[in-house]
Write a structure and sequence with these properties.
The structure holds 2 protein chains of 2 kinds. Helix content of chain A is 17%, strand content 48%. By secondary structure, chain A is an alpha+beta fold. Chain A has one domain: Lipid/polyisoprenoid-binding, YceI-like (Lipocalin), CATH 2.40.128.110. Chain B is an alpha/beta fold. Classes of the chains: A alpha+beta, B alpha/beta.
Chain lengths: 181, 128
Amino acid sequence: MKHLLIAISVLFTMSVSAQKYFTKTGKTEFKASVEAFEAVEATSNSTTAVLNAANGDIAALIFVKSFHFEVALMEEHFNENYMDTKDHPKATFKGKLADFNLEKLTAEWQEFTMTGTLNIRGVDKVINDKIKLKKVDGKIIVSGFLIVTPSDFKIDIPGAVSSKIAKEIKVTMDYELVEKK
Amino acid sequence: MSWSKRSKSILIVLFTGAIVAVFVVTKIMYAPHEKTEDVEAVFTGKASDFITSINTDTTLVAGITVELVGDVTNVSDSTAVVNGNVFCQFSGEKITFKVGESVTIKGRFIGYDDLMEEVKMDKCILKK
């Protein structure tokens, strides 16, 4: 009986530790374009995201340098003048999906409330948004959208370009998480 | 009204100057992204040495190009892991090497990923 209990607890521990899903190549995109002006948008295909399927904890990390702009000079200005990438190379998120249950995840999109803290340029912002998840071929597909403003993260936009950069920045996330083995 | 020869010359010079100025400004504003093969590597050496150096050497900041030697421990379509803790994203070329091979990879160091506990590189190319 004692051995059986030990075996069950070992198996349980193994299944819990195996319930992490992750990606290192998640796609995060932002758009700060204003109509009639040059597009201000960039994509990072290097987002790391980890979901603990046992309790819904979610963490993500983006290296700001990994955002790719069409125009190289715009990318340089983004890193040097606005994001201070030298001092703040990472943007991070730590949070939780409310009522997450891996067993109930299907191939149909399901909406979850995601709460947590987004940190950009060393400034924290509390996030409380909806995010969609589904499970396809053993992978968890995450699709999210949120709006942030430069002032949320104390990013100064000089007057000369303020009309060319949107006041609200649309951020989309597309991650395909695989089970960590 | 007829234009004097001098006025015509000034106009031609101004017009040519304006065209050159527009061309130069456009060339600077829309300069293409640097290619990894054209950028000089700030660090060249073993992947294991690079990881120990990033904690002490302040010149090894995010965005620099590095050339690292190590053994491949994982491969997918467009990514590879070297020495178990250097993650490389390749752009463009298809990965032809296999797990266990010793490789030299040139790429852009974008930072240390503390969620995965590994160095992350993008714009990678295979040197040999």
